[in-house]
Amino acid sequence: MERFLVIGLGRFGTAIAKELVRLGNIVVGVDTDAKLVNRLADSFTEALIADVTDEQALRELNATQYDAVVVAIGSSLETSILCILHLKTLGVKNIWVKAASKAHHTILSKLGVTRVIHPEVEMGVRIAQALNYPMINQFMRLGNGIYLVEVEVKPQWHNKTLREIFSQLSGADSVQAVTVKRKTEIKTVLPKDFVLLEEDRLVLAGSQSALKSLAKRWF
Amino acid sequence: MERFLVIGLGRFGTAIAKELVRLGNIVVGVDTDAKLVNRLADSFTEALIADVTDEQALRELNATQYDAVVVAIGSSLETSILCILHLKTLGVKNIWVKAASKAHHTILSKLGVTRVIHPEVEMGVRIAQALNYPMINQFMRLGNGIYLVEVEVKPQWHNKTLREIFSQLSGADSVQAVTVKRKTEIKTVLPKDFVLLEEDRLVLAGSQSALKSLAKRWF
Ligand SMILES: Nc1ncnc2c1ncn2[C@@H]1O[C@H](COP(=O)(O)OP(=O)(O)OP(=O)(O)O)[C@@H](O)[C@H]1O
Ligand SMILES: Nc1ncnc2c1ncn2[C@@H]1O[C@H](COP(=O)(O)OP(=O)(O)OP(=O)(O)O)[C@@H](O)[C@H]1O
Where does the RCK N-terminal domain lie (chains A, B) (predicted)? Predict the structure, then answer.
């Protein structure tokens, strides 16, 4: 069981803290807003009121005992930076921080943190990709321009073989069917005459350009 | 080439608009903040100053000509809701909207939009999962509790066969190796004596509980 300290209980910090609790971890949440802390008291292992720009308050939180410390303070650059400075002085090693701008990101990197997150920007990019490729439900980037994508199985593909489906889509030769999830089973051996059923989930792999040309012909 | 209208050019809206441009689409950005619009004028096909709570201004934007309209206004519930109301009156069908709270989400659903997004919450959940499973780089949910995960290939696995690796990890029998990406190649046929090399990326599939028990023994 791991222990996490989450500083700043806005939408982003609270979502992290709640999900870490759901995954079975010990989570202590900290914020200066007493009303907020009281409201969230039952959602975490512990919820504490503290001003993290005060080094003494951070020392009392015993921040080095945690597997990771998350700092999710967005609207005040000064607060976020001071907090990180104090955590580093106390010897905290694993720090994940929200950044609100490129300038904020640069300062955080110079101070030395484990990971900088821009929630709005990272989600914005994902949403744009979902708008641009409506037939792709989710994807994984595997490096060297190779992607795994999970695609909508169109009704006209039901009870058709992979050979039939791929022959309709020219340019498909550089895309491979990787796996089909059928109910609770994962099928990894996919011969050309494998037949797709209605509730199947199909995962393909290929280069970005091959998948793009496939996507344009998809709909 | 598709056409998108992005209303509200904060961090989230701007990230969507820029990524849609990068993917080769026509993108028109709209905001009431003239300074912001001027700064972003070269990043989009067009950047316009307008107050979207004014139905006449929206009518002049010809919002129905777009494949989708994104409304990325977070801090004013009233502005977001009025904008959606006008878009629906004008007959816009495909509307994706940022929500800032559960109450906001409920109202948007009642008005009838295509998709509601909580960028901070959705990113918060992803970050918590990355903190909880440090060995998993990315994942896909395939339904029925089945996941695809891309995992770190540990140095002690280099030049070892899949048989050797999986025998070290008990409980691994219910997890399947789905694909290995090696440089620009995707290997989908993975016999037990397949040897992993240093820069390989390994993708596994299994139920959440099987992957969880594997993860705990991983490190
Ligand atoms: N000095 C401080 N010590 C502890 N908590 C603080 C301090 N300053 C601000 N906070 C808290 O951090 C939380 C998040 O801060 P803020 O509102 O700046 O972030 P945000 O990025 O706008 O939030 P969201 O995650 O909702 O987008 C708030 O609940 C605030 O009370
Ligand atoms: N009536 C309006 N018409 C057009 N644009 C507007 C209107 N009201 C607000 N905006 C713009 O919407 C943008 C985003 O709004 P807001 O700051 O409320 O969202 P946010 O969710 O806090 O942003 P972020 O994406 O940075 O988290 C701002 O740039 C603002 O100028």
Answer: 1-117
